[in-house]
């Protein structure tokens, strides 16, 4: 009942993570990787960017070190800091320095959420210098060829305040992600949960209905992940309509009218 | 006269907390729990969300570690920090790491009050990775199946600034809570305080009158909790009208006209 | 000529603080106290809320630990922090933990001035759990029955930014305070200063005139406290008009026209 | 050529500071002091508030501990903090605690500049409790009768953001200061610098001209202090017009047209 | 697979970095260097400013210490700080002090992103005093003749908030950079990637088309760096149109219509 | 090739810094100094204020301790702080305390950039008390007669937010600086660079043309310093027009039309 504990740089993904490609994304990522170019993943929440990175890390046999970015993430959080131990200070690499030092893949999730100092700290790593200055150590780390920098964001959320600067963007090869085509999505829901095909198709149809509401009262439509949630509840014996309400509708919005409309959509299907 | 002191992870709730279900919430929570999906509780203040979590923790026989979220809650407050002891630094798990490590239920109350870094720190715990990176330790905790993440908020308070991001929401199974139906609410007030049925019914009627004023001068109507307060004062010998004023009316608003209107409502009942 | 020094939790008020009740406030507070419900005091500055709390603490024979809230009051200021001593860190309870641990009365003065994290830290103490999580110690304090939480604010100052959240308000039994009726107020001024009845009545009349100006150029009228100040200066031989100017008029406003009007009011009385 | 170094609480003013009273301010301050009431000094810059406090401190034979308030002054700056020395932490009283502990006069200059936590920390000292809670020590200091709290501000600068709260103001006896009458001001300039009467009168006339421009392009007129500056430069051999420009006109404003107008005023006098 | 680690002040560039001059920039930089004047580089992202600095550092045989500026870069980050080691504090030079002390070139990249304290800390280094006060050490460093200060920014991004103060600008000799002329740019792309001339010319033509869209929906056109990225992907076997999409179009914008327009441009060329 | 290192308080200027007076500034500064009055220097960037202070320091044979003010300069940065060394804390004077303690000249450059706490910390030093309270030491430093406080700012930049408070201004004798008259300026450029008179006169003419553009597209005209830069580049063999572009035009503005206009001006002269 206790948690298992790992060192991030030695946490290799052992089993192939299930991933269905939707275009040339695997080929382009591998070409960028071998040319030592950093990669930017764009796309809505829950469409598979994180799973893609796990799949790539498995293909390339490199540890994947993921950082969820946020407003308060400092450069020190990425690069590292001194900690006091036994009266001495001991340097502890942050996840970025850890990836550079051990030739891993550093994946900065939702990079536009980060403060400017985070995005700037990656600049010398994201051009052909591939160096990380660790000013507190007075050190320059030169990334080995195996080191790879990737980051993601959701262009739909981009505000003026949280825009990626051109001087950052123009260092990356960019991949666009979106929800899979209906057949593929139904297959994914089935593979992830074991639910029968008919229900997974209805769930995909339901998701598409909500995606059409995007911009008309919904900030975002249901992601593939939410379909998987609903399918799991159904597999556990929860009534399909109730599962759609809890796992999908209530997860999408708090607006009473919108909720009523979405409930009707699910009731028309199940 | 001294306080009793516990370790949160070993503070199991021994006696069944009194809880009256208002729908399928117990069934859905248990299905989500067994599928290792995180749960989001939505509803107004004082309607029983905290009591529900205590009831669930008792049913699942897991320790319940609650964090009241606020503006200044940092990721370190959740994850943990180093403290100096005897010249060495000692790591102290925050409540979230404590729950992950010991397979408890971590309940983040009023999550929308938290800063963005708090909401983001739970992302890798709230999808199928179920990992908590503790960057200061250079550790990855992988949550055991018993670990459960739950959080709550009141959609009525949601402002643009304090909105839950879609990338956060779309990781959770969501349960909607509301005030119980009148009969049930009167039964609850009676059970909690021992007050006679007639008075508890009047208190519920009074609460409903204030709830109708929501949006017409009142930010929120009287919660079930306030009815329990008033009933307790009455049981201690305070006049029913004075109890309604102190425990309900004055707790709801400072507006003189509104107070006068509410006093009239209570005077018409008692 | 040196200050006397006390531990807050052992500073019991020995002599009955002079307090004239204006309603059922003592009865309600005691009922709330015995039901372990927290209490909220509302009312303008200088009308006797602090004196009331001293009186209650004396009645209940509990230590009164007062915290003047402000913008920069952190949760740590209330709960406690580690200090380094002899190479080790020593935990020092903040005033709230001190009151919980020793079963005292914790009185948070002007709570709306506090940051949100302060108001949220009291939530688990202010419902039927009555627990204070001390996250830095990894401890849960369960308040003994003697522990009592009270807080005050002035509804007249409440701004949108500094509003008490419903989820906070709806945990408290609320008591409304106001200036005493004229006879009572004159009696209070006399009892506090020894000034003769005629002058204390004139001072009360003067105060009422300034209270009528509230909203018409004055933010607030003269409090009972200011009348006591003026009476003390007069008892020390200062001319009554000059005392009213310094102790009352100049303490109320800086506006030249307003001051001239108030000077005329005092000149018409003395 | 090295600075002399003192402990603030033992720095008694030995020689009577030259001060010309402009009203009953000395009498009122002494009455407030003996009634243990705090005092608030209001008035424009450079009109003698600081000198008055030095004079009062000399009269009362108490040390005067002055704090220049500003935006970033924290409660800890006033109350004190722990410092590490020889591996242990040592408490160092701030100026306020120092004055309470040793029965001195604490003078908070330009209090409205202070953050709210500064103004609130003085509340329990500024009513009849006269206590200073030092939360980091877990101590309550009870001020001896000799302790006195005074503060000043310039009502002309008061903005909405930097207003004194009524709950603060209504704890103080307030004294209003202004520039002295012409004869008195000329006498002061003469006494401070030794300049001949004819020139000091002209300087006062010049100052009055600039004071008439207040609100018509000048934020503030020339203070008595500036007249003393000009007189000192003249005594050192600087031409009177040039002295007026450097010591008065350029110190008042940067506006070229305003400066030309003021230069003409001084040229008409000297 | 491990990173190589260097001391910044001893990391001399050994091989001539490939750089094609576009004007007199090398001559002017060297004249400024020998007159001990600081230099400011202006120009759009990815046009070669960083490469120019590497080329200059190689020519002058001085170490190049680069700092990527950002909002949160403090003066201490530049100048240095004390770190605790073995119970003592040890001073660690920041990159600026490191460059002054060892006579290196300090290059502040995107200086307008820095906080004001960063730009001000360089003032005494950027005039004829050439000193760096290190206040925490109580030291003044006088820069040797070999020390050189350079900084860059992109005038296109300059906002009112992030403007270089005249008191900063007017200390620097300024060099303007821009994209190279088409022939030169095609030559650069060829030299950097080995791609055949025809394709590099088409890429330059494509870049120019995007540059014409600047201000008409694009914040910035494609930089030379992006052409190099696309050429590298093509050399790795990625289809030219797909390479243009990922390496150029998606790196420039997220706008769907803009992307469609740019895709058409690339389709017309490849 | 290594930097030379000094203690600021023992860094006396040995050789007379070249300075051409433009009015009575030397006489007034010396009169203020001997009357122990603080001095305020006003004027545009690069017109010689810093050089004037170096000249004055040389005349008065006092060390000159300069602080470049900025937004993030704290009171501690000026006054000093404790540092840990060998397990003990050691006090390190800031530049202001250093100047007071050793009777030096403290020059606060661009004082309006400083936070309010910086400007307020100098108040007791800038009136006839001439004391610096060091609250963390519990010490009062009384400045010796040799101590002198000076500060500068550029009135042209003064915004509402960054205005000097009257309570600060009205403590200083103020000196106004401006660009020297043409003949004098040409002489200065010649003396600083050795450039022949014809060219230095043309440079001055060019500077005046740009100064006429102030407010018509230029924020500020070319300072004397920029003329010296251009002359140095020309002396190093750079073409005069190119030197004017890099050292003057590009240092003044980024606006393309403005730059074209200024280039024409220089082309008409050289």
UniProtKB/TrEMBL annotation, chains A, B, C, D, E, F:
Gene3D superfamilies tied to this protein: P-loop containing nucleotide triphosphate hydrolases
Entry's family note: Belongs to the CbbQ/NirQ/NorQ/GpvN family.
Lineage: superkingdom: Bacteria
All copies of domain ATPase dynein-related AAA, residue ranges: 38-172
Tagged with keyword ATP-binding: yes
GO molecular-function term, one example from the UniProt record: ATP hydrolysis activity
One Pfam family, short name: AAA_5
PANTHER family registered for this protein in UniProt: DENITRIFICATION REGULATORY PROTEIN NIRQ, MOXR FAMILY PROTEIN
UniProt protein name: ATPase AAA
Alphabetical keyword list: ATP-binding, Nucleotide-binding
Organism: Candidatus Thiomargarita nelsonii
Every CbbQ/NirQ/NorQ C-terminal domain range: 185-267
């Amino acid at each position: 009942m206790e948690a298992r504990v790992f060192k991030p740089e030695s946490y290799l993904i052992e089993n192939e993570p299930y991933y269905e490609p939707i275009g040339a994304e695997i080929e382009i990522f591998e070409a960028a990787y071998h040319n030592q170019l950093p990669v930017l993943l764009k796309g809505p929440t829950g469409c598979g960017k994180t799973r893609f990175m796990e799949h790539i890390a498995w293909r390339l046999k490199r540890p994947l070190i993921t950082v969820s970015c946020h407003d308060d993430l400092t450069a020190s959080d990425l690069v590292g800091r001194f900690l006091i131990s036994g009266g001495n200070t001991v340097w502890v690499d942050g996840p970025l320095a850890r990836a550079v030092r051990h030739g891993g893949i550093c994946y900065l999730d939702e990079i536009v959420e980060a403060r400017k100092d985070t995005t700037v700290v990656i600049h010398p790593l994201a051009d052909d210098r591939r160096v990380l200055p660790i000013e507190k150590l007075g050190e320059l780390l030169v990334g080995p060829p195996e080191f790879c920098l990737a980051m993601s964001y959701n262009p739909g959320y981009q505000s003026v305040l949280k825009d990626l600067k051109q001087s950052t963007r123009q260092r990356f090869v960019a991949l666009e992600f979106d929800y899979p085509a209906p057949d593929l999505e139904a297959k994914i829901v089935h593979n992830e949960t074991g639910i029968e095909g008919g229900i997974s198709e209805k769930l995909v149809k339901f998701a598409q209905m909500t995606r059409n509401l995007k911009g008309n009262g919904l900030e975002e439509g249901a992601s593939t992940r939410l379909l998987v949630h609903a399918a799991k509840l159904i597999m556990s014996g929860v009534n399909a309509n109730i599962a759609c309400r809890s796992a999908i509708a209530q997860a999408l919005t708090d607006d009473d009218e919108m909720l009523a409309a979405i409930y009707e959509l699910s009731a028309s299907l199940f």
